[in-house]
Write a structure and sequence with these properties.
single chain; 1 helix; 72 residues; three-stranded antiparallel β-sheet
Length: 72
Protein backbone atom coordinates (compact mmCIF):
# COMPACT_ATOMS: atom_id res chain seq x y z
CA UNK A 1 0.00 0.00 0.00
CA UNK A 2 3.05 2.29 -0.20
CA UNK A 3 2.16 3.28 -3.74
CA UNK A 4 -1.38 4.29 -2.78
CA UNK A 5 -2.60 7.81 -2.08
CA UNK A 6 -5.87 8.56 -0.29
CA UNK A 7 -8.29 10.64 -2.33
CA UNK A 8 -9.64 13.65 -0.48
CA UNK A 9 -13.26 13.18 0.56
CA UNK A 10 -13.34 9.49 -0.41
CA UNK A 11 -12.77 6.54 1.88
CA UNK A 12 -13.77 3.87 -0.64
CA UNK A 13 -11.05 4.54 -3.24
CA UNK A 14 -7.32 5.24 -3.45
CA UNK A 15 -5.00 6.34 -6.27
CA UNK A 16 -2.02 4.29 -7.39
CA UNK A 17 1.03 6.61 -7.54
CA UNK A 18 2.76 4.80 -10.38
CA UNK A 19 -0.17 4.36 -12.78
CA UNK A 20 -2.56 7.04 -11.60
CA UNK A 21 -5.36 4.47 -11.50
CA UNK A 22 -8.20 4.93 -9.04
CA UNK A 23 -8.79 1.67 -7.14
CA UNK A 24 -11.71 0.63 -4.98
CA UNK A 25 -11.02 -0.44 -1.42
CA UNK A 26 -14.61 -1.57 -0.83
CA UNK A 27 -14.11 -5.25 0.04
CA UNK A 28 -17.81 -5.79 0.75
CA UNK A 29 -18.83 -4.73 -2.76
CA UNK A 30 -16.13 -6.95 -4.23
CA UNK A 31 -17.41 -9.93 -2.22
CA UNK A 32 -20.99 -9.24 -3.34
CA UNK A 33 -19.87 -8.99 -6.97
CA UNK A 34 -17.96 -12.27 -6.75
CA UNK A 35 -20.96 -14.01 -5.15
CA UNK A 36 -23.29 -12.74 -7.89
CA UNK A 37 -20.85 -13.94 -10.54
CA UNK A 38 -20.62 -17.38 -8.91
CA UNK A 39 -24.41 -17.57 -8.65
CA UNK A 40 -24.79 -16.71 -12.34
CA UNK A 41 -22.28 -19.44 -13.27
CA UNK A 42 -24.13 -21.99 -11.12
CA UNK A 43 -27.41 -21.09 -12.78
CA UNK A 44 -25.82 -21.36 -16.23
CA UNK A 45 -24.41 -24.84 -15.42
CA UNK A 46 -27.76 -25.99 -14.03
CA UNK A 47 -29.56 -24.74 -17.13
CA UNK A 48 -27.10 -26.63 -19.35
CA UNK A 49 -27.56 -29.81 -17.30
CA UNK A 50 -31.34 -29.41 -17.47
CA UNK A 51 -31.21 -29.19 -21.27
CA UNK A 52 -29.08 -32.34 -21.43
CA UNK A 53 -31.49 -34.21 -19.14
CA UNK A 54 -34.50 -33.03 -21.17
CA UNK A 55 -32.84 -34.27 -24.36
CA UNK A 56 -32.04 -37.65 -22.80
CA UNK A 57 -35.62 -38.05 -21.55
CA UNK A 58 -36.90 -37.19 -25.01
CA UNK A 59 -34.63 -39.85 -26.54
CA UNK A 60 -35.84 -42.43 -24.01
CA UNK A 61 -39.46 -41.59 -24.84
CA UNK A 62 -38.74 -42.09 -28.52
CA UNK A 63 -37.08 -45.44 -27.82
CA UNK A 64 -40.01 -46.57 -25.67
CA UNK A 65 -42.45 -45.56 -28.39
CA UNK A 66 -40.49 -47.59 -30.93
CA UNK A 67 -40.40 -50.63 -28.60
CA UNK A 68 -44.12 -50.35 -27.86
CA UNK A 69 -44.97 -50.06 -31.56
CA UNK A 70 -42.87 -53.17 -32.37
CA UNK A 71 -44.92 -55.15 -29.90
CA UNK A 72 -48.20 -54.34 -31.69
Amino acid sequence: MKNMINIKGRKDVVRDKSSGAVLSTDIRSLSEYKQKTEDKEKIKRLEEKTIIIENEISEMKQMLTILINRGN
